[in-house]
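Annotators were shown the component list below and the corresponding predicted structure, then asked to write short factual statements about the assembly.
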Amino acid sequence: MSSGLNLLIGISMGLNLLALGSSRLPSLIRVAAAQGVVLGLMPLLMEHHFSWLVALTAVTTAVVKGVVIPTLLRHAMRAANIDRDLDPLIGFIPSLLLGAAGTIAAVALVRVVPLLPEHRGLLLVPGSVAAILTGFILLIARSKAISQVCGYLILDNGVYLFGLLLIHAMPLLVEAGILLDLTVAVFVIGIIVDRIQRAFDSLDTRKLTALHE
Amino acid sequence: MMASVEFIVRIGLWFLLPPLLPGIVNRVKAWVAGRRGPPVLQLYYDLARLWRKGVVLSDLASPGFIAGPAVAWVAVAGAALLLPLGPLGSLLSFRGDVILLVYLLALARFCTAWAAMETGSSFEGMGAAREVSYAVLAEASVITAVLALSVQSGSVSLARMMEPAVGSGGVLLAAGLFTVLLAENCRVPFDDPATHLELTMIHEVMVLDHSGPPLAVILHGASMKLLLYALLLVQAVVPLGGLSFPAAVAVLAGGVLAVTVGVGLVESLLARFAFRRVPLLLTTAFLLCLFALLVAWNGGAA
Amino acid sequence: MTQYFLIGIPLAAALAAAAWPDNRTRPWLLPATGIVHTALSLWLLVSPPQVPAGAWLGFDPLARAILPAVSLLFLACSLYGVSYLRTRSERSNRVFVAGLLAAFGLMSLAHQARHLGLLWIATEAVTFASVPLIHFNGTPRAFEATWKYLLVGGTGIALSLLGSFCLGYASLQGGGAGDLTFAALSAQGVALSRPWVLIAWVLLLAGYGTKMGLAPMHTWKPDAYGEAPGMVGAMLAGGVTTVAFAAVLRVRAVIDAAGAGREAGITLMVIGLFSMVVAALFLLGTRDFKRMLAYSSVEHMGILSFAASIGGAGVWAALFHIWNNSLTKGSLFLSAGNIRRAAGARTVDEVGGMSVLTPRSAALFVTGMFAVTACPPFGPFFSELLVLKAALSGGHGMAAAVFLGSLLFPFFGLTRLVFAIVDGRPRTAARTAGKLFPETAGVVVPPLILLGLSVWLGLATPSVLHTAWSDAVAQLTPPVK
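Structure shown to annotators:
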């Protein structure tokens, strides 16, 4: 069980780096979607016996993160008529190296914080921290709105990954939190993206500089 | 007596087998593209033809123009002799031989670049610059991969480093080394060996002015290097220690064949990358090797 | 039971507003809800209900100490809103009214949430409900402000969820059974795993601090406040921020119980003072009077955090200051909204002589400025005095000095800006626009009421509020063992 889970977390860490290295928006969206599906599978692996609630969480997560949101994002991308983030604020290689350093730091971190016995040997915490850092890097480093939304998605994936630690003790918190958060956040952000596009003709957030001191 | 016989056999094998690999790659490419393609033994014919030809020398070139390819070939051959061959072991094994191997390969590259610069042609200078700048990045990955191997085996001698089975970090290492293999041997997506446009060439443009036997030596050296990297990759990932002698040899040969076919497939399915994307790919390879190293450090736990 | 009406009535009104067909009469739902809500919450203030210890939701002492202030602010804003929306009859107010009511209902929910997860969900929902409010004006700048609000606010929300998870994990390690009510978490006390408690505190402070607008997470604030209509700014500055502050207070109580109160106090004090200093510096530089209000809000959030970090008497003063902040900020935002609509511009370069064009709003604006910079006899003077007293008696001499210094500079900044706008001759561009904006009672009386309440609160604080704040402090401070 634990090695299967760790494998999935390892894949999600790899997807983080892939997201940092991809300049084309469709591949970035695809990476975020793949990570969502990988995350959706995890609760199934954590269960010793089959339970409907957990299965439902898994399926919903996979569908929302893997299908619904990417579809919305692709829609926004087509509406905005852009498909690549050519000149990011922080280049692809520096952000890739930052992400890798973050991942390594996250793995090192797990030795410091105390974990419950059943979570020892699991990579959930480093996986979560790595995804959150990746999300932050994307949020800061990318100039296009859709890339930033993808960064936010990956950040969310990290939070969800951490929530898996609590899925037995407080399933409602984990489920309500993630679903509400994701559907609403990205839905609203999607609309905003659409409107911003109409207002600015480009999704370059660096052009959002009318408001400053 | 036995030692010298073995030495001769090994040299012979390293001399005879490598040109087969580019032939297989081309065969795979032809097969994917639906063409008949050149025969598998094409490179042998080419080498034989080149060997018989004369040499055209520039007035400006120093003896380094000839010495470069020769030294490069010797360096690669030396590196090849250091490499253990599965159950056969290596001819010469000592503590730290892996460092010598890396340096010999670097020396070979230095000599090729030197010979290219000797012509004084701007094209070849450009090719040398590109080759060397890629190599800087690729070398970091090689060193990291070597570190990963040595950490998990607790040894700095090639023969011992290749023995232990690699855990899930092996996947990372394999991906990283395969990328390095492509970069070091100037294959797609880093360089296109079949290109005819000097401006986009890397390796090919360096040897543009060579002819006759020196060119044959360069081509043979390149194929030897491909075989060397393929063997290194296979041994770093596939545990051969527990197998019987024939099985191990068969696995080794199968592995090299698989790698070669893989190179051919990559070459058929991918276009070469734009120059500015190449560092990104090499950084990825470096990170893959780095993570393999970290996994090795964790004792293969993850 | 009454406390559920506080949540249910605005939400029901929001649904009604969404379904209401007539654009002209729809805004009347706002004052109707405001009156009922204020009456209910004042009644609950006077006669607080019993809250079962394990309840997820309840009008507990902390809610009692803060929520009525939000009700009063909403009442004033809703009265203002009717007149305001009449001047903006060219665009549909369906989403705006529904969003405002929903945000208000969710704020009531968040104030009464006694459960970590419920509090988070409510705060998040408030954020989303206020999105349409910020881009009501529909200009590109409003979109930009909304985008920043969402991106920064969304990140803050994600961090606070992560912090909630960490606190939950700390409770699991302490042998908790997954009960995330604040009472249960506090009851676990030092059994909570200390490293996780500290991580949770940092994340929750960063998350809810983003919603409060503490520096350096305040970047969304000037944009959002600057671009949103004045009444929305008032509700954001006086309502949403109190939700986040109450959340910080509730979390802090748990951290205190877990024995990390000292660390929490220090971080809160540092971030509070930092916010005050940053706000003071920006106030000296800004030329836009609506952004000025945002920085003033950052400053007051800093004051609240600083006060809360002292504990005990400081928390009491902070609760007092919440009331003052909500009331004075409300009046300032509403009068600034009037000036903004009359002048058609927002920077000192374009606006001047407003005392001629809109004499009543200008007078209110100046008075409100004096109130917000803590001049006597307004409430903020007394609450800030109490904060200072608590800081000095708590032995935080240096911090108190920084506190005083960063109160002085905003005074310079605000007076400079406000008098530049009010004084002098009207600019030619603004002269014609001023005639188009009638200063009806509907847009002048609400800020006046808020100012009056602020004076009353300062000079004669009702004893019921005294007890309410003391009860809240007792709820937040762990019993001495």
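Statements collected:
1. The interface with chain C takes residues 112-114, 116, 132, 136, 139, 145, 148, 152, 155-156, 158-159, 162-163, 165-166, 169-170, 172-174, 176-177, 180-181, 184-185, 188-189, 192, 195-196, 199-200, 205, 208, 210-211, 213 of chain A (CB under 8 Å).
2. Chain A has a mean pLDDT of 80.
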